[in-house]
Amino acid sequence: MASFEFSHKGLQAWVNEVADLCRPESVVVYGDSREEYNFLCEQLVSAGTFKRLSSSLRPGSFIANSDPADTARVEEKTFICSQKAVDAGPTNNWIDPNVMKARLEPLFRGSMRGRTMYVVPFLMGPEGSPFSRIGVELTDSAYVVLNMSIIARTGAQAMNALGTDSDFVRCLHSCGRKANSGDSGAQTWPCDPERMAIAHFPEERLVWSYGSGYGGNALLNKKCFALRVASCIARDEGWLAEHMMILSITNPQGRKKYFTGAFPSSCGKTNLAMLKSSFPGWEVKTVGDDIAWMHFGADGRLYAINPEAGFFGVAPNTSVKSNPNAMRALACNTIFTNCALTPDGDVWWEGIGREAPDGTLDWREQRRSKPDRECGDAAASSAQAPLSHPNARFTSPAANCPSMDEEWENPNGVPISAILFGGRRSTTIPLVCEARNWTHGVFIGANLSSETTAAAAGQVGRLRRDPFAMFPFCGYNIGDYFSHWLSLGQNPAHVLPRIYQVNWFRKNPQGQYLWPGYSDNMRVLKWIFERCDNEHKVVETPLGGLPEKEAIDTKGLSISAENLGDLLTVRKEDLQTEISSIRIHLQRLGGRVPASLFRELATMEEKYSGL
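Structure (tokenized):
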């Protein structure tokens, strides 16, 4: 086994400890050079894990197909192992840290035999930023290394930031070995789904993941570090680690503002982050599509950095119509997972906007003589299984995206003027409403909700509360998380952004969407931009301040006055059910939910009674 001498003694001791436990055949420190990247790609092509896509259609790109039992993030096998169960709270699966380590150590013991253990240092955030953090992942998956090298800043720049004594988050990952399969070293997708576990030890700044090679289960820099562990660090240090996109808007006069936004799954967060404006003279650019780390600056304003360096996005329903900038970003140097493969060497998925050619291989590598469907919604019913997995993914560098903002890697972050909360609601929630103040904005975020889709767990159309879109990702008690948000609003030195709730998905009684969405969402962002400059008046309702109907610019938009009126109406008959649902939700979250949120609910009831 190769040995390495690290100048950071803590890293040296940890690498030695894990190597002794997992017994890899060799140890390789990943430096993130183009030669190393290409070498690992060739290794995976030779092993059958990767297939090279057509160089004329998608140069430098590959497709991989996972084990069918290892296709998604698994919340039921994800654990917060805080010292006390109450600190994990009601939204997390808690196991005593000593019990979890006793369970996982035997699985890790010898799990890397016959494999290489890669040491992957990674930097979360721009190089040189005081807000960036460092992690190191030890993994036996070259697939993981390659994906991490796209979505994080790996290799030498991370090692330089680590130096000889900096703190770092320790991330241990092994694909594992199936208990009944013997030596799985020759498998194209090793995993152990029956014994899979993703365990977070927040007090130790430690993550252990065993048994999965897929997505956020294995790319530990992403949800595990950037949200679950980082949310605990942020609580302790007085900042915010959030499941939010970041975008900029520039008006025709050249004035720019930055917004962040939290949206549950299947609610258009990535599409909004990469939105192509439908308004001449108004420009939208991307800072980040998934995660925002936010700190208050010396001037009192809230600043956000994107801790990532690339995109790990859901492929189905991504199209030129829904997200033209994403489609351009996927043109080269991208890794696709569990997508369909066309006979000419390109990728395909439901909702891409074109028919799948005859002879396309589905994500299980079965040839289909007839495509399942042409280019409808990925959630549409079909007599056959879809060609791509509903959670099929793309991994692409941010540098590929034509809409990246010039300041996206500013080490000081970008100043935030507004925070958006959005969900998929067919009724009740209007197109946009403004929080009355910071506390009311936290109340809106704490009760964020969305109706489930076919791609999400649960019955289609069931209302699911997802506080701040952080329900699966907050690394500590959600009531304490609400208190942390509230405390930041109580500091008189803080210049607080405005908070808004948006809903692109309201429907009429016939089930038709009232709002066109996509690029026309710019019309709502324009109103929010102008409200941040104290333009326009709002109509007060129990849910917050609504635009006057003439304040939403509908020039060139084919929408009836009736539909626009419905989008900007709060109906009393809807509110009684909403108030009851919110009360049940907050009560279920336990005794640490701040009393001020129940007072906001009481205010909502009072305003409802006055309608």
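The chain is about 25% helix and 20% strand. The first strand starts at residue 26 and ends at 29.
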